[in-house]
Amino acid sequence: MIFLSQINIEMSEDKFMTEQIALKYIEQHDFNFDSITLSNSYLNELEIAFLQHPAIKNAEVYSNQEGVMNINLQQRKVAVRIKTDNADYYLDEQGMRMPLSSEYTPRVLVVTGEVNESHHSSIFSFVEKINKDKFWKSQINQVHFYNKEVIIIPRVGSQKIHFGALTDVNEKLGNLYQFYKQAMPVKGWQTYSDISLAYNNQIVCTKK
After folding, report:
1. pLDDT tens digits along 43-94
2. How far apart, in whole angstroms, are the C-alpha atoms of residue 16 and residue 31?
3. Cα–chain center distance at 46
4. DSSP string spanning the chain?
5. Widest Cα–Cα separation across the chain
6. Closest Cα to residue 15, out of 71, 66, 75?
7. How far is C-alpha 130 from the chain's CA centre?
8. Domain edges within the chain
9. pLDDT band at residue 5, thresholds of 50, 70 and 90?
10. What are the angstrom distances between the C-alpha of 63 and each of 5, 46, 97?
């Protein structure tokens, strides 16, 4: 029998860990606590086990004076999903690699194509900017790496946005925002098949 008062999971948009998942995780690791075995060594072992869970950032396991166990858990937060022909994983809010979960799939920007670990830093920096901006977070659905070029797939409109390298991000996004604001309402969202931001201070469009 598991002898505890409650499992406290820090509030988060992500749901990689719930009370039910935590209880299942405890059972899978053969932790069976009762009033006799509720010792500091067992508590430490359980804490270490939770810290080894790929979705957990921090864990604290302790008992109070009445011998009742408490578990406090903090989840890692996903920033972006990277999906290639050979791999499928997340980068968390600190830019660290994180495996997928069978329990939960968050809605985050997806990066696909010819991606390797050398791209992680620029991807993470780009996604940080996107996630902090309400407009871009709702507009950018996918980032695709192909032949040393980055192509952005928007949620609205069917065009491909050729970004070039992930450099001068603020300038390129600023130019694209002005284009969306001024040209798209006049030309229409379905007019262009391709929009290129790869050239300095200009936008080059290709009509369908």
Report:
1. 888 899 999 999 999 999 988 777 678 899 999 999 999 999 999 999 999 9
2. 20
3. 27
4. ---EEEEEE---S--S--HHHHHHHHHHTT----TTT--HHHHHHHHHHHHTSTTEEEEEEEE-TT--EEEEEEE--EEEEEE-SS-EEEEETTS-EE---SS------EEEES--GGGHHHHHHHHHHHHT-HHHHHHEEEEEEETTEEEEEESSSS-EEEEESS-SHHHHHHHHHHHHHHTHHHH-TTSEEEEE--STT--EEEE-
5. 75
6. 75
7. 12
8. 4-75, 78-207
9. low
10. 9, 12, 32
CATH tag, 4-75: 3.10.20
Q: What whole-number distance in Å separates Cα of residue 191 and Cα of residue 204? A: 13
Cβ(69)–Cβ(40) under 8 Å?
A: no
Bridge partners (DSSP) listed for residue 8:
72
What is the residue type of 150? V
In whole angstroms, what is the distance from residue 157 CA to residue 189 CA?
5
Rounded to an integer, what distance in angstroms lies between the CA atom of residue 98 and that of residue 182? 40
Look at residues 62, 65, 81, 73 and name the one whose alpha carbon lies nearest to residue 124: 81
CATH class of 78-207: alpha beta
Range 179-182, long-range pairs (CB < 8 A, 24+ positions): 179/203
Distances (CA, A) of 51 to 76, 144, 193: 11, 33, 47
Length reported for the chain: 208
